[in-house]
Amino acid sequence: MEKVDDITIILGKERDSNTYVIGDMLIDPGTGLNNKYLIDSIEESGISMNDITKIVNTHCHFDHMGADKYLQDKYGYDIYMHPLDLETVKNKDENVTVASSFGMKVPDLDIKPLNEHDMVNGYEVLHTPGHTRGGICLCNGKSLISGDTLFSGGNFGRTDLPTGSMDDMRKSILHLADLDVVQLFPGHGPYAISAVTEQISLAVMLASRL
Question: Which end of the chain has fewer CB atoms at under 10 Å, N or C?
Answer without folding.
Answer: C
